[in-house]
Structures are given as structure tokens and as C-alpha cells.
Amino acid sequence: MKVYFDSAATTQMHEEVIDAMINGMKEKFGNPSSTHFFGRESKAEIEKVRKDIAKYTGVNASEIIFTSCGTEANNLIIRSVVEHLGVERIITSVLEHKCVAETTKEVCSKKDLELLLLPIKKDGNLDFETLEKYLKDSPKKTLVTLMHANNEIGNIYDIEKIGKICEENQAYFHSDMVQTLGHFAINLHELPVHFASSSAHKYHGPKGAGFAYIKKGTGLKAQITGGGQERNLRSGTENLHGILGMGKAFEMANQNFDNEIKKIKSLKKYTIKKLNQAFPDIIYNGKSADLEESLYTILSVLLPFHDSLIGFELDLKGIAASQGSACSSGASKASAVITALHDASVLKATTPLRLSFSIYNSEEEIDYLVQSLVEIAEKQKARNQAKEN
């Protein structure tokens, strides 16, 4: 039996998405920058997807810029804000994805900018009082970059509140929304956010396609220069079939939120029940076990035994899961996010595991997962007893 519980890293593409991409590759091959019929036809397809995404997110089509992924979208935004908007300081947190964490470190180091990290509470939530204090204590022009939902522990953050704090203090606000756009109905126009990012492969679309939301009038400029594609914000021949696949995936997600959320949330609830029965001492990271305050797609735990090879052992049983984000899924130690939430003594006696679900999972698969974890725990206990003897 092969089971996939790593949808936060990437999702299985819908058949309809694959069909849309194949049809695009067969029928729409012109360079979108060419002025002849074939080019105009390709360009029209791209603009249709842009308008559709803009419609679902409540923004102007000109505010949607296609990229290759969420990482590129985040880099475009952060680097351009620093380069062109006169930012003197960045406020972020240890919760951010590596593409934000590493980019902010690099640009602050190169430009000699101040970099401030918000304290994290033990439940994985952000300290809004400190954010207000940081912004009010200094007149420095600031970029605040905080994700909408964490990709490891699943906590959902109040970006409306963050945005209002930023507005009150004339700060730019960027939110990595890779784990939420395509999973929830989100009207970007109604949120006090200047910039956001999305990646198609997180909601059953193709890898290699994503988009940045860049609020009109903010003054960002390209980081990749050349032919001036994407409204002079991202040069390079567009990934036409990737954009078509992303458009189809985003359309399907927005038309099926209610059914998908209901099904996946039910699977997550079932998993919590089964894990509690098998491991009464299990620890849930952050708000992960709260069905209302965390992503319905993610469940992050500390198993009540220490096994640095848990990912490998699950893989041998045909189960795909991770110990953190996809960037650190092969790591044998807890990620920066998990480390920030727990004492070293707790981490030494437990094993982090992230399970992430999609509509393609079933209760039968969850039963197999939990039974496999019980078997691994028993083997680990036997190994420990052998060492003591």
C-alpha cells in the first residue's frame, strides 16, 4: 500500500488540470510576445487566466503577476521593496518559510538594514503587541513580512489585524499566502495587504507556476529584466501550459471549497482521534489540533518516542510524510519552527511528524498510517530495551 500524506509539500494534480495543460501544449504554442495570430492566441489565454484569478481574489487583473512559484514571488516582492521603496527595516518571524527567512537575512545584510524577529508564543501564535511596539518605537520605513498560515504547524494568523497595525504605522505588509490561496475563499482587495504570493502546486496545479499579488501603485520594479513581460515586473517568456494548469486548478479550488474543506477536515479529525487512541501522550504542535484555528490540511505532532529515522521507516512502509517543511523534510532534527515551540528536553524524547491531507486521502489510509506508527514505536522501544540490557 502506498499512501501520500505530504500535500503541504506538493499536491497530486487533478485530471482536469492535466487535460487543460495537454490541450494548451497541443493547440497553443505561439510565443505570447509575438504579434502574429499564434502569439496573440497564446497571449489571450494568459490574460484569461489572469482575469479569472483576479476575479476570484477580488483584485484588478493588472495586480496579478505570474511567476514560476511562491519562492520567486516572495523574492520579487521582498527584494524589490528593499531596492525601490526605500525600506530601512524588515520585521518578520522565525515562522516564515525559508524563501522568506533567507531572503530577508540576505537583503538586510547586503543593504545594512535592521532585521527584527517577532517573539513566538508557545501555541505558535504571533505577538501582536510587540509588532505594534516595534513599529511605534521607530520612524524607520518598514516592510512587515508575515505568512498567512504556517506550513509546518498549520497555525492561521490574523493578517487583517496585522495589516491594520501596518496601516496605522505606514508600513508595507507582505504575506506569504502559499498555504491559503487555493484553500480558502480570499478577497485580497478587502485585506489590508500590499503584497501576497501563491504557488499552483499547493492546490493540485502544476509545479513551475505561481503568482504574486502586487497592489496597484506600490511602485515595485522587476528583479528579472529583459523583454518586459508581466507588466515589466517579470521578464521571460511565460510558462503558458503551466499558467493554464494553474488557472484550471485555481478555478476548481474556488468552485469546490465547501466540499473539499468538509471532507479534508473530517479526515484530519479522524486522524486526531486515531492518534489519541494509539498514543495518549502525543503532543500537537501549535494550534495544529484545533480544527478552527489551523489549516484543515495540516496536522503537526510530536510522537511520544524518539526516532530520528521516522521518515525513512515510514517510507519503507509506503507512507510519505515529513518531519517539517519540504525544505527540511530530510532533516534528522527538529526545524527552527518546532524548536521555537518546545524545550530541548521535550524534543529529545519525542519525534516531530507533519501529516498533510488532500481530497485524495481516505480513512483506510489513516488506519494504515497509525498502525504503522504503532509498529515503529514498538520496534523503537525494543531497541531501547536491548541497549539498556
From TrEMBL:
<dbReference type="GO" id="GO:0051536">
    <property type="term" value="F:iron-sulfur cluster binding"/>
</dbReference>
<dbReference type="Pfam" id="PF00266">
    <property type="entry name" value="Aminotran_5"/>
</dbReference>
<dbReference type="InterPro" id="IPR015422">
    <property type="entry name" value="PyrdxlP-dep_Trfase_small"/>
</dbReference>
<feature type="domain" description="Aminotransferase class V">
    <location>
        <begin position="3"/>
        <end position="369"/>
    </location>
</feature>
<keyword id="KW-0411">Iron-sulfur</keyword>
<dbReference type="InterPro" id="IPR000192">
    <property type="entry name" value="Aminotrans_V_dom"/>
</dbReference>
<keyword id="KW-0479">Metal-binding</keyword>
<dbReference type="GO" id="GO:0031071">
    <property type="term" value="F:cysteine desulfurase activity"/>
</dbReference>
<dbReference type="GO" id="GO:0046872">
    <property type="term" value="F:metal ion binding"/>
</dbReference>
<dbReference type="InterPro" id="IPR020578">
    <property type="entry name" value="Aminotrans_V_PyrdxlP_BS"/>
</dbReference>
<dbReference type="InterPro" id="IPR015421">
    <property type="entry name" value="PyrdxlP-dep_Trfase_major"/>
</dbReference>
<dbReference type="InterPro" id="IPR016454">
    <property type="entry name" value="Cysteine_dSase"/>
</dbReference>
<protein>
    <recommendedName>
        <fullName>cysteine desulfurase</fullName>
        <ecNumber>2.8.1.7</ecNumber>
    </recommendedName>
</protein>
<keyword id="KW-0808">Transferase</keyword>
<keyword id="KW-0663">Pyridoxal phosphate</keyword>
<keyword id="KW-0408">Iron</keyword>
<comment type="similarity">
    <text>Belongs to the class-V pyridoxal-phosphate-dependent aminotransferase family. NifS/IscS subfamily.</text>
</comment>
<dbReference type="InterPro" id="IPR015424">
    <property type="entry name" value="PyrdxlP-dep_Trfase"/>
</dbReference>
